[in-house]
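If you are new to this repository, start here. Below is one unmodified record pulled from the training split, so you can see the exact layout before writing a loader.
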Amino acid sequence: MMRRRMGRPGLVGTMARTAVIAGTASATAGAVNRHQQAKAQEQADAAAYQQQQAAQYAPPPQQYAPAPVEPAAAPAGDDLITKIQELAQLHQQGILTDAEFAAAKQRLLG
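And here is the target side for that same chain:
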């Protein structure tokens, strides 16, 4: 007749208990992880829906037309034409850059 041991569990009992605890912990961690992922996805979907609704009901951006430029009154006479021709010659000779020529011409015209 074999006597049954009382007290602390044996090696097999300890391993079985450890396996049950580890399996429960793993299942619980997986459930928490899935819950967090579902909650994050739900928040992302809600944010996308809000952006879509905001874009749908937002007024279109206003486009402003540039103010019409009124031509300045040019000084009368051959003097203006002569000065512009002199500037053009200086520009063609390379003495004035494009920017300098444009600025000088603008000063003459208005």
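Two things worth knowing about this chain: The two ends are 123 Å apart (CA to CA). The helical segments are 11-57, 78-92, 98-109.
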